Amino acid sequence: MQGTVMQTIADDSRRFLRGNDGFFIVCRRLRDVGRLRNQEDTEMHHARPQPHTPTIFALGWSLCLAVLTPAATTDAAIATFEDLKLPRESYWNGADGSGGFASGGVRFKNTYVAGWEYWEGFAYSNITDTQTGGLEGQYNAIPGSGQGRSATYGVGYVGWLEPTTMTLSRPQTLQGLYVTNDNFTYYAILNSSGPAQKFGRDSGDVPDWLKLTVIGKDAAGDTTGKVDFYLADFRFADNSQDYVVNSWRFVDLTSLGEVKTLQFTVDSSDTGEFGINTPGYFCIDTVVPEPATALLLGLGTLVAIRRRRPHRPGSGEQSW
Ligand SMILES: [Ca+2]
Ligand SMILES: [Ca+2]
């Protein structure tokens, strides 16, 4: 970044630094309190299995399911962020310079620029506040919790230095993951914020949109496919159908096939000289492998139990 000419631009609510290469950074935190909107809390996108009638058959099937349970629920998720420990109402943003973090078998990349208080890539958080907008709300998921009312979730920010990526421990097909809006983005869309315009604009009729794109990449780094998800969509002619996502939504990623890395990008109808004006944040939780993979994990558990059974303490190696 040496040699970059930086320009300071101040407005009523915050200050920005812009470089001659298009780099854009928010460098001062100021409160920007938005309106609290009625929240519809998290609804699982999948239909949950209904309880079975307690017949003998059902009991047997339930016992089978009990062994294979990881295959059928988000307990099988390969990343939930619940294994990341945080003090209450706090976040991690990479200020320790570690360059990322892992949840389950998934590594999330982080880039932190010391001295600028700037980060991009992934952070994680357990903040529950849903009313704070502006930069102060950048670590807040708008539903007020992680997916399924869990405590902890990831926060993605698509910046200018490195691609925003998460990398699996091995190539596999994913059923999908959950996403929602970040407070900063949510309130900027509803009320405007700095250079970001209110969606629909003054007339309410401008067909604005904010799109998250998930790009699958295989072990060789080649793209396997792309999936778009609209975090906000005001393109409906009937404005009563316009929406900003405020609950956790499942994004189906099976069409990407077997992937090693996912890259995330954001795009918006509201753009300027330095790229999109809408804050480029999203929140993420509960990465779910495809059912077949999860089923194999469950069967693997069964086989492991079966193979361990003949062992007796002190009996040495068992011949089969
Ligand atoms: Ca979680
Ligand atoms: Ca509209």
CATH topology of the domain at 76-291: Jelly Rolls
CATH superfamily of the domain at 76-291: Protein of unknown function DUF4465
> Taking all residues together, what is the mean pLDDT?
78
Helix content: 10-25%
DSSP summary, beta strand count: 19
- Widest sheet, order of strands: 7-8-10-19-11
Number of helices: 3
Give the low-confidence spans: 1-73, 303-320
Q: Kindly name the structural category.
A: mainly beta
Question: Strands, helices and their partners?
Answer:
Layout: E1 6-10, E2 15-19, E3 24-26, E4 32-33, H1 56-72, E5 91-92, E6 100-103, E7 106-113, E8 118-125, E9 132-133, E10 153-157, E11 164-180, H2 183-191, E12 209-217, E13 223-233, E14 243-244, E15 249-252, E16 258-268, E17 271-272, E18 275-276, E19 281-289, H3 291-308
Helix pairs in contact: 1-3
Bound molecules: calcium ion (CA) (2 copies).
One calcium ion is lined by residues 207, 234, 236, 239, 242.
Written description of the protein model:
The protein is mainly beta. It has a domain at 76-291: Protein of unknown function DUF4465 (Jelly Rolls, Sandwich), CATH 2.60.120. Helices cover 14% and strands 35% of the residues. The protein contains 3 helices and 19 strands. It has helices at 56-72, 183-191, 291-308; strands at 6-10, 15-19, 24-26, 32-33, 91-92, 100-103, 106-113, 118-125, 132-133, 153-157, 164-180, 209-217, 223-233, 243-244, 249-252, 258-268, 271-272, 275-276, 281-289. A 5-stranded antiparallel barrel has the order 7-8-10-19-11. A 3-stranded antiparallel β-sheet has the order 1-2-3, with no helix packed on it. The protein has a two-stranded antiparallel ribbon with strand order 4-9. Strand 6 and strand 7 form a beta hairpin. Helix 1 packs across helix 3. The chain is globular, with a radius of gyration of 22 Å. The termini are far apart. Mean pLDDT is 78; it is low at 1-73 and 303-320.
